[in-house]
Design goal:
Radius of gyration: 21 Å
Helix content: 40-55%
Number of helices: 11
Distance between the termini: 76 Å
Number of strands: 10
Strand order of the largest sheet: 1-2-4-5-6-7-8-9
Bound molecules: ligand C2E, magnesium ion
Structural class: alpha/beta
Largest sheet: 8 strands, mixed, barrel
Protein name: Bifunctional diguanylate cyclase/phosphodiesterase
Organism: Paenibacillus hodogayensis
Order of helices and strands: HEEEHHEHHEHEHEHHEHEEH
Shape: globular
């Protein structure tokens, strides 16, 4: 009896596993052609100056408009892209498209704000990173101060190497922001040694801020720290008025989150957030 059911369980799980693997291989194969097929798109999420309700920047967030599955979020395909070595090609596409779009907005009466682009760890450690970012800026005509690169603490496994990369990027004139701040290791020593312009407070600290005094204390401390280090600070993942009020009460004006807007396709960002300048 037991043996039998064990065997059929195994059959069930191995079938599930097989299906999962099959699905992954299909996604990977399809992803290889996704760039050429124009299936990758960037959404843009506003970063708002909360007191004045003005947009001070946008973060570019990748989506895959899959022919049969619809719009897929990065969590579904970026890990596959990293494993399959496609992340370089995708990352370069993201940078070029974000810079092209922002330059086009600047040239056509849109707001003179920067675009933030997420770098993957592999991209960050690519030897040609600085030279190809320089090339993309020249090619698209976007002035470097309008490109912000989002990196995470977890990328900086080797501090000595990372600081060199960051110094080169800094010399190029682009802004560096530290994403998901507080979720990695050694944050404080990084902040001291690295040329970082902006800290993004991770959503995990903001989520329960209205109920949890510890989270509130952590967030207040990060804001003070940023101010003392002369860095910009933005809070991610603000969804409610209550969360917004606490952030503003703690002197954090820069806000990104569903409370103001979900990430939007370019045309929707234009129609909802662009004002004549
Ligand atoms: P991230 O850089 O921390 O981006 C913020 C994520 O939080 C986005 O998810 C955004 O849609 C979501 N978010 C924003 N406001 C709220 C909110 O109020 N509530 C909640 N629950 N979520 C909110 P998304 O677009 O699914 O991206 C997930 C992650 O994928 C990003 O986290 C980033 O690490 C990565 N990613 C996205 N686009 C790219 C890209 O072009 N290149 C690379 N390398 N990574 C990317
Ligand atoms: Mg980010
Ligand atoms: Mg983040
Ligand atoms: Mg993240």
């Amino acid at each position: 009896e037991i043996k039998k059911s064990g065997k059929s369980d195994f059959g069930f799980y191995s079938k599930k596993l097989h299906e999962k693997l099959q699905e992954k291989l299909e996604l990977e194969a399809r992803l290889r052609t996704a760039i050429a097929a124009n299936e990758l798109i960037l959404y843009y999420q506003p970063q708002m100056d909360a007191p004045s309700r003005t947009m001070t920047g946008v973060e570019a967030l990748i989506r895959w408009n899959h022919p049969t599955k619809g719009i897929l979020p990065p969590a579904v395909f970026l890990p596959i892209a990293e494993e399959a070595g496609l992340i370089y090609e995708i990352g370069t596409w993201v940078l070029r498209e974000a810079c092209r779009q922002m330059k086009s907005w600047h040239d056509n009466g849109g707001p003179l704000i920067p675009v933030a682009v997420n770098l993957s760890s592999q991209q960050f450690h690519q030897p040609q990173l600085v030279s190809y970012i320089r090339a993309i800026l020249e090619e698209t005509g976007l002035p470097p101060q309008y490109l912000e690169l989002e990196i995470t603490e977890s990328m900086m496994v080797n501090a000595a190497v990372s600081v060199e990369i960051l110094k080169d990027l800094n010399a190029l004139g682009v802004r560096i922001s530290l994403d998901d701040f507080g979720t990695g290791y050694s944050s404080l020593s990084y902040l001291k040694h690295f040329p970082i312009d902006k800290i993004k407070i991770d959503r995990s600290f903001v989520k329960d801020i209205a109920q949890n005094d510890n989270d509130k204390a952590i967030v207040a401390t990060i804001i003070t720290l940023a101010q003392h280090l002369n860095m910009l600070v933005i809070a991610e993942g603000i969804e409610t008025k209550e969360q917004l009020d606490i952030l503003m009460h703690n002197d954090c004006r820069d806000i990104q989150g569903y409370y103001f807007s979900h990430p939007l396709p370019a045309e929707e960002l234009e129609s909802h957030f662009f004002v004549p300048r």
